[in-house]
Amino acid sequence: MPEITEQAPATEAAAAPRSLWGDAWRDLRRNPIFYISAVLILFLVLISIWPSLLTGTSPYACDLGRSQQGPAPGHPFGFTTQGCDVYARTVYGARASVVVGICTTLLAALLGCVFGGLAGFFGGWWDAVLSRIGDIFFGIPVLLGGIVFLSVIKGGSIFTVVLLMSVLGWPQIARIARSAVISAKQQDYVQAARALGASTPRMLLRHIAPNALAPVIVVATIALGTYISLEATLSFLGVGLKPPTVSWGIDISSAATQIRNAPHMLLWPAGALSITVLAFIMLGDAVRDALNGVNYSVSAGETLAVLGESGSGKSVTAQAIMGILDMPPAKIPRGEIRFRGEDMLTMSADARRRLRGAKIAMIFQDALSSLNPVLTVGYQLGEMFRVHQGLSKKAALAKAVELMDRVKIPAARSRAGDFPHQFSGGMRQRIMIAMALALEPDLIIADEPTTALDVTVQAQVMDLLAELQAEYHMGLILITHDLGVVADVADKIAVMYAGRIVETAPVHELYKNPAHPYTRGLLDSIPRLDQKGQELYAIKGLPPNLLNIPQGCAFHPRCPKAQDLCRTDTPALHTLGEGRRSACHFWKETVNG
Amino acid sequence: MAEPVKAVAADGREPILQVRGLVKHFPLTRGVLVKKQVGAVKAVDGVSFDLYRGETLGIVGESGCGKSTVAKLLMNLERATAGEVFYRGEDITKLSGRALKAVRRNIQMVFQDPYTSLNPRMTVGDIIGEPFEIHPEVAPKGDRRRKVQELLDVVGLNPEYLNRYPHQFSGGQRQRIGIARGLALNPEIIICDEPVSALDVSVQAQVINLMDRLQQEYDLSYLFIAHDLSIVRHISDRVGVMYLGRMAEIGTDAEIYDHPTHPYTQALLSAVPVPDPEAREGRDRIILTGDVPSPADPPSGCRFRTRCWKAEERCATETPELAVPVRFRDEASPAAHPSACHFAEVRDVVGAA
Ligand SMILES: Nc1ncnc2c1ncn2[C@@H]1O[C@H](COP(=O)(O)OP(=O)(O)O)[C@@H](O)[C@H]1O
Ligand code: SF4
Ligand code: SF4
Ligand SMILES: [Mg+2]
Questions:
Q1: Measured over all CA atoms, what is the biggest interatomic distance in chain A, rounded to whole angstroms?
Q2: Complex prediction ipTM
Q3: So what family is this one in (chain B) (predicted)?
Q4: Span B294-325, pLDDT tens digits
Q5: A355 phi/psi in degrees, rounded to 5
């Protein structure tokens, strides 16, 4: 066997190095919201540094004689009660907001990262003490705390306001930092660094901090907008910034009492404040989308790869389900899938959903995330009967207990009051089966129902499924990647590759004599007793990215039998005999070895 | 206290790692500031085995039985509650600082999840080069780039990929990167905790073949942890079966798979789906009842007795020792291998013998 390297063309395409930060930046630049907010913020920063760029009038040049007058030449927004120029004051007011917002955020983020990071990294006493301190501050509503402290210390300078708001605001960031550090700390790459003998500072700086930073950046950007409106609120209430500092909050406050006489005095500072806060919130949103978007696109790519290999994959797209339904493994006679004569592929999404709820039930791999963690199992099972059959609470619970008995959950009556997390993985999967049964479906689609379970528990659950299936005469579509499970329970098999069915066959024939090179490769790569010590057969290359399926036969880059024809023409699903089909141009040659 | 036994395998190989009475209890605590211990998760509770030079010892068992904890104890990522791990005659569980760092050069690890075991914000070159930064004596600075490229080549990846990030690789490729990092310091022992469990079926075989090749090339000893019994059999010379923090049975792969004498091993083997529909009817399937008990409150005596169909009085009162059962002791049969059961007997569940 030639040495196999995984340099499939699909990955060659991803040529240049792409860091996660780079990806986030690229996503950000594609987001129009980011541009709008960035331009606004840049503008704000500029005028807070050089307000004279926009106005030649001083915000302090007041003329009591023009008190509350409307717009006049050279004074487009009119005058305040003191007779100052509203336009100039609005322009100059930006400085207080921007400075307070940015300084508070930086200080709060610094405090939050240090305390939250230490608490998360060292755990134990550090965590207990630091988290307790954080909780005390966190318990104080920032606004209320601000009012009380600022009235006592009779503050008023930008410095005191920033200091106070960051002292009250850091715990929010610390919480995020702490949990980000804890989750980064538990990652295997940190363990791997330790196993190599890395020092503590190295682990913190090189492995944990860069990975914990993203969520902190997101909350900090969003917090910035909040701090700006908070400063305005405090100034409005008269405890924040004090004249002679120019602040939108102060001006809004003095304008508010005169709203009937001179609404123009309120309009401009209030509008400027709203736009500023909005700009920062938009920026925060865009940053969050970009940073999370990376995770999403990575996991999407990863999931797609698994999807190809395991036939229909973990997160089954509706499309994939329908694909299987159109070509069911023979447990389900074709007529039942063309439900009531309707073709499920052309049915409206709504009709399909209704159909699936009533007659087709699904069981997923991850039972824990499919159950509501805050409701008891009995309640959730009973809900099916309350909603669908209108039973009373008591009758529904009795039904639920009956079902739990059916799926062999010991002491069903007393356990009906337990919550999902109190059950073991195998028991939870039984509960999922019970839920599926409650609907009395004609068909159960089980998507990797036992993959997350241990072999002995897996055997119990598969046994139960087979038993119930016989008893209720249900169809069962089992989506799995485990060739062993398939051999154990299936009657017929459909093999999927890159989102398409490539072979269908009765189980015995498939294992004895596969008619598609992919199936043959899969079977050959199972370790076998009589070949111990030899190299395992390995299908070369990687499952394709579903967004970039090779031309012609999707399997051709990995196929030992591929010819020129395979690179250009997509093979049809040829019928070879009763229930046997293969999507390979060379199925004859394949069947014959 | 156990001494490093100067045992030598039948074929003259000497043990490179000797594990004696290894115990790890994770305290269960209550209270926030003042922590009060209210119990302990007995994750590993008295495990002993030897690893011979150049061999692969497979460890199987269901999740939660303590396999990963054993791996972490061997790697000193967790402190053992009791017991010893002898490497070159030295108990490494008590080491710290410089001495520990030195041992770490020789014992490395490959992790289960190729998605979480590589730092997503470091380039592949930095990841594989990190061992050299931590142990600068291994490779002079100017030499490192070349070394990293060599390692990439050894694990079958394009050496030009140096500047890419982990998310630009598939699961199988990432696992190769993890293996390259493990090889960097030229270790003697590699602990593999479920190295292929997270990979697609067709890619598993590629990685297993790579590991096989590297073992021969570099004379590595593997401790290969997995829950997939067929993969373990394929790669292992010997196999140990764990249940609830203890070793139930240990022996060569043929002894364990074809002549299991411990009821748990028999149940485990019989539960493995066999990829052969013809075998469906003929198989002796043992469907166990109940769940694995909590390791915080394990049964007395034999750990398996709550699910064992052969359990008797004695199983609750007397802990069966991991030793060759008396009845087989004088035989030269494959049944004569250590099994922690009072009533050990052969039962061919796989239909292989
Ligand atoms: N850090 C920890 N704290 C408390 N309990 C733990 C910890 N790590 C593992 N355990 C427990 O120890 C037992 C063995 O775990 P583990 O070694 O991971 O098993 P395996 O690898 O065989 O699945 C499990 O019950 C697990 O919950
Ligand atoms: S059509 Fe060609 S490439 Fe596709 S499986 Fe058949 S032989 Fe291989
Ligand atoms: S010692 Fe008893 S309980 Fe344990 S495995 Fe043997 S027969 Fe079963
Ligand atoms: Mg584990």
A1: 104
A2: 0.72
A3: Belongs to the ABC transporter superfamily.
A4: 888 899 999 999 999 999 999 999 999 999 99
A5: -60, -45
